[in-house]
Amino acid sequence: MMSVNTSSEARSDSLPAEMRALVLDGTGFDHLRVGKVPMPRPGPGQLLARVDAAGICTSLIKLVEQGPDHKFVYGWDLARFPLILGDEGSVTLVEVGEDLRDRYRPGQRFVVQPAVDHPPIINLERYRDRGQGIAKVAVGYTLPGHLAEYILITEEILAAGCLLPLPDPGIPYAHAALSEPFSCAVSAQEHHTHLVQRDPLSPRQVVNGLRKDGVTLIVGAGAMGRMHVDLALSAGPRAIVVADLLEERLELVRALFAGRAAAAGIDLRTVNAASANLVSCIGSTTNGAGADDVIVAAGSRGAIESAQSLVARGGVLNLFAGLKKGEEVVGFDTGIVHYREINITGSSGGSPWDVARTLELMSAKAIDAGVHIACIGDLEHAIDFLRMTRAQQIAGKAVVYPHRRTEEIIDVQSWTSLDESNYLN
Description:
Elements: H1 8-11, E1 18-24, E2 32-38, E3 47-55, H2 59-66, E4 83-84, E5 88-96, E6 109-112, E7 115-116, E8 137-138, E9 150-153, H3 155-159, E10 163-165, H4 173-177, H5 179-190, E11 193-196, E12 205-208, E13 215-219, H6 223-233, E14 239-244, H7 247-263, E15 267-272, H8 278-286, E16 291-296, H9 301-307, E17 311-319, H10 334-339, E18 343-345, H11 352-363, E19 373-377, H12 382-390, E20 397-400, E21 410-411, H13 417-424
Parallel strand pairs: 13-14, 13-16, 14-15, 16-17, 17-18, 19-20
Antiparallel strand pairs: 1-2, 1-4, 3-5, 3-9, 3-20, 5-6, 6-10, 7-8, 11-12, 19-21
Helix pairs in contact: 5-6, 5-11, 6-7
């Protein structure tokens, strides 16, 4: 692992005057660059952290393509005030503002929940109407992001409780960096609520999460769909069915999770919905009852409309993947909702609790972030990774180490703590 110098000199005089960062100064990929920017220095109520590892998130593509029109940019003039991108990362403190020295110290490791539910505090002059009416800001948007060598932890992040300590110092940098996307799956599955009666005369009780010993169907085996499979395995259903139109994605699901599912006594099934009958598969798996939990992790109107008929009585349909603008309205059979008494839910991102829960699951080895990592590179590769992600050329997550200089992108099947240690040392 990279060592951290916690001396007073390292916290101030030894820091460089500039750092490398991925910067957006307009709309489109032509306005995206990796270059030198001034090194941020923390104010009294701020922290400065080294970015140990950063993930490449698909949401950044929308930000690049929309520029100042993105809803979380709030009218900033990007030509005057470029954004430092990156909403996924793990960090180590290197400098602590004078008002925070009784709470934090250099060398502590954290992850940042990027969705900051707090009005803007700093740089109000850059926001439309000086930030009036804004209730939420985001890291990697108007707050500095992780795709840089260092990141400024601002007052908004601390006030919203979005700086989460690692429960285990042994969690690899790259794994911790993926706690944010994993937290989205944690949040989604926490949104599942089942009303359970012990017997007909007992009151209903609310049980959160996937139904234990039930059947879970995950529609879509992309990167987030596979995180849902990973997380669902720790919930203890008797069967997990994963459906997709691409056989190579289903092959990856089997390669990553079949052994673990078998060891846990969980029946893991994959269905190519382009060539097999998903309805028949769910019917045979559930004796015609339907799946207790259905998660639609594919951004498809057709997937949502067809999935509703696969939900069991009292089950949950989770609309996890968003649809393109203009395609948000879908058809629902109200008879299914009414007579089967199903719950329909959705979620968009995680909360600080979800990130903390994700870190606990990582520490307990209940989920394995390493199997979701497909590419490793330098900060200089961030733009290439974004283009590759947009073209769906990466079968998983890409992670960059901003302080590790390399010319090559490394394709990997998984990324362990030992892999990271060997790479960095």
